[in-house]
Task: structure prediction
Amino acid sequence: MDILAGVVCGLAMGTIFLGVGIYVLVSNRDIYDRLSRSLPQGITPTVVMLGLVISVPPAWVFLGAIAGLAYRLVDESLPDAGLGSSNFVFTVAVLCLSALSILIVFLTRKRLVRLGLFINISFTGLFGWLLPLLANWR
Result:
C-alpha cells in the first residue's frame, strides 16, 4: 500500500511539474529559437518537448514509488507521528529535501523562484503529508 501511495503522489507531482514546465515554455516567446540554437543538428525543439511530455510523468511515478518504499522503511523503524503527518521523520526528511532544492533554485535561477516555490510546496504537501496519509488509510 505504501508504494501505491507513492505512485499516486508521484503521478500528481508529475502532472503539476509538467503544468509548470508548459507554463514556463509558453511564457517565453523566444524559447523555440533559443532551443533550436542550442540543440545538436538534426534534433528539433519539438522532439525535445515531446520527449519531456512523455518522460516526465513516468519519472515522477518512479520517484514516487521509491518514496513509498522509503516511507515503508522509515515507518517500520521510527513510527512516530508529528507535524500533522503519521510519520514525523519522513515528513522532516521531505521538508529538508524541499528546502535544499529551493535553495539551489534561489542560488542558480533567481527569476524562477516563484515557480520553484510552487513546485516545492506541492512536493512537500504530496510527499510529506499526503503519502503518509494514503499509506495508512485502511
Summary: DSSP finds five helices and no strands in the chain. The CA atoms of residues 1 and 135 lie 6 Å apart.
